[in-house]
Amino acid sequence: MYDIRLKKLAENIVNYGVRCQKGEKVLVEAIGIDYQFVNLVIDAVYDAGGIPFIRILDRRVLRELINNGNDEAFKFFAKHVGDLMQDVDCYIAIGGGDNTLEMSDVENEKMQAYSRLFSKPVHSDIRVKQKKWLVMRYPTGAMAQQAGMSTEAFENYFFEVCGLDYQKMEKQVKPLMELINRTDKVHIKAKDTDLTFSVKGIGSVACVGHRNLPDGEVYTAPVKNSVNGYITYNAPSLRNGVKFENVRLEFVDGKIVKATSNYTDLCNKIFDTDEGARYVGEFSFGLNPYIHTPSGETLFDEKISGSIHFTPGDSYTLADNGNHSAVHWDLVQIQTPEYGGGEIWFDDVLVRKDGRFVLEELFGLNPENLK
Prior knowledge:
By secondary structure, this protein is an alpha+beta fold. It has 2 domains: 4-162, Thermophilic metalloprotease-like (3-Layer(aba) Sandwich); 166-369, no CATH class. The protein contains 11 helices and 20 strands.
């Protein structure tokens, strides 16, 4: 017996998330999850008239491939998976697994090479820029443990945050998008944070259930060389199996000139992956009214209501600032009072204070109005 909520979720992913149409080919990558949900997604694709193709992956196997691989192997993987990605119309990734730290002992140099030679050409250059796609996390005991919750409590939480009325959100984000589109200068002030940059001419994009589950954000990107000042992120970030905390970045003319964290050396190795890794590709407002505290899972944490993420690395095609990299590291700062507060100013006008929008035109994005 499966949870009836999973059937509804599978249907939403296929019909609303990637908007599968009759005759479209859909690649589904399932990583460390139960077969039952994969079957529900298959059924939903067939019901929509699409053609599903499944890749079943295991992080323990992926760890072995990366740890013992080399540039030639990663290029070989990229060629064949890239050919498959080119041949489909939609891509759905469902991530799970029973160990969130599975990749923690993979050599950093191997992860950098894998990101540069496999992830960037396959995912950044083909999937993100050319396909309809959705990435989600599946509720597992490991995720519940990481979030400090019982399995049942986390499952209920998962369905609540993923079941948000995204069509309602899609309407209510429009004033924020319009404001971003006519803004030049942004100033962010918070604890150990004083950052300025421009977003002039970049544009804005709403994420309302068509790319991630859970979802709920509006993003743009800074003009590449305009970022100056410093920012400290107060949400932990799990990357490549390593839990980074208190990441602090200093910028001069767009470039990270100093980076510290609880793993300063490793942090800097990530930013040295390529030239673009020390520039920022995304600035985003987190808006999901059901997410309030970090769980260590980026797809959840970057949507925390009252948060921002300011992302070193690759920019997205729809808000392209010209920065490109194998890295896209969504680092999160929460600005609600419980996390020290903060202010965001657009062209010398206060837009959000302590995680709440203060302009009347944006009141609809405060959490009580999005539920």
